[in-house]
Amino acid sequence: MKIETQSIHVGLPAARPGEPVLSPLVPASSFYAHPDAGFSANDLSDAAPHFYTRWSNPTLAALEARLAALDGGEAALAFASGMSAVTGLFLNRLKAGDHLLLSNVCYAGVAEFAHDALPRLGISATAVDSSDLAKVAAAIRPETRLVHIETPANPVLRLSDISAIAGIAHAAGAELSVDSTMATPVATRPLDLGADFVVHSLTKYACGHGDALGGAVIGPAAAIADLRKTSLIHLGAALSPFAAWLILRGLETLPIRMKAHEDNARAVTAFLETHPRVRRVYWPGAASHPQHELAVRQMRNFSGMVSFVPDDGPALARQFADRLKTVAYAVSLGKTRGLLFYIPTGDLIASSFRLEGEDAAAYRDIAGDGVFRLSVGIENADDIIADLAQALG
At what angle are helices 381-392 and 254-272 packed, to 10 degrees? Predict the structure, then answer.
């Protein structure tokens, strides 16, 4: 099946009279057990029936089957949030004495977890500009076990070459995980490019409606089964069945929504690139993006994320918050409605990314004193542009 069909049909009940035509919501927390069933997660086998929803649930199983199909993976595992999916993967694949190499521009919570929490467990972490393959190769250590990249990267939409980095990681005996939240499987399937795992915040484009939190890891069946036993069951970050059901509903329109997001982002980028209060605009689909050639090679859809550097960020942020009507001045991304938020560069460099020297200067060259991260919605493009124009003044 093509992706438009997979996004609707994978995980549905069998086509028999009396069966629902949609994946049912099963809110039960526990299920009838076999008298010989064990009480420990260590007894869990791949063929085990549903037992307790922290372990598995029919609605979550339908979501996981669909996610695996969309990303071309053997299996998927749903978590309560994108953050829990990333941290669960890190804690499963890394142990004391191991080394993590990650993008030095990525979701702030992931950067903070790598810098603050992992060292307390005896796991070292190095952040590197993953758009520079030479720097990635130079930062690999004998004890590197996992390379984690985010592409496009939050918030400046820097890209990383998944195929090339997979080759570097595998040559060193390490695995590669890719946070592909902003791209979605409509744009990029990292597993096809050599990655071992792909991570999504399902809260964003996958759900698409801003009404559910969720995360997922997709990869080899054996590794995902182990991830279920350790990071999901023992850490407890289980996705609720209702949230899973909402995300399943959202996935049905994902390919159509991503086309609309991309079309609107193209129009909004063209508008912003000519506005006198905007210094620079970043959108992978624009010829002006410094990595546009890689975007064309690696992405079948350029997504709806646009970042731009203003002439006066703090003042313009207040102006946007006061004046915007169609676009919401709010965090998050990937919703049907447009969302915009200002991210000061100094805050990220100091508190989240911990960039110094050359890396800090390089980020400032891209982001200036701060960037507006604009998640372009699927409203009429003319209405979005008119709202931005009146708010810019």
Answer: 40
Q: What is the pLDDT of residues 234-279, one digit of tens each?
A: 999 999 999 999 999 999 999 999 999 999 999 999 999 999 999 9
What is the DSSP secondary-structure string of 330-349?
-S----SS-EEEEEEHHHII
- What letter does residue 132 receive in the DSSP assignment? -
- Residue 171: helix, strand or coil by DSSP? helix
Q: Given this model, what pLDDT does residue 38 score?
A: 74
Q: Is the pLDDT of residue 282 over 80?
A: yes
Confidence of residue 209 (pLDDT cuts 50, 70, 90): very high
Which residue matches tokens 């076990």?
A: 145
Contacts 24+ apart (CB under 8 A), 258-261: 258/184, 258/186, 258/187, 258/205, 258/301, 258/303, 258/304, 259/301, 260/378, 261/205, 261/303, 261/304, 261/376, 261/377, 261/378
Quote the tokens at residue 354: 């911990």
DSSP codes of every residue in 219-232: E-HHHHHHHIIIII
- pTM equals 0.96
pLDDT class of 47 with cuts at 50, 70, 90: confident
pLDDT, tens digit, for every residue of 185-194? 999 999 999 9
Cβ atoms of 150 and 106 within 8 Å: the answer is: yes
Q: Which CATH architecture is the domain 254-392 placed in?
A: Alpha-Beta Complex (3.90)
The closest alpha carbon to 99, from 90, 108, 86, belongs to 90
- Domain ranges, ordered by start, for the chain: 3-251, 254-392
First to last CA, the chain: 48
The residue-averaged pLDDT of 285-307 equals 98
Helix axes 241-251 and 58-71, enclosed angle (nearest 10): 40
Token couple for 339: 């969302």
Burial bucket for residue 367 (CB in 10 Å: 0-12, 13-18, 19+): buried
Is the CATH number of domain 3-251 2.40.300.10? no
Calculate the CA 247 to chain-centre distance: 14
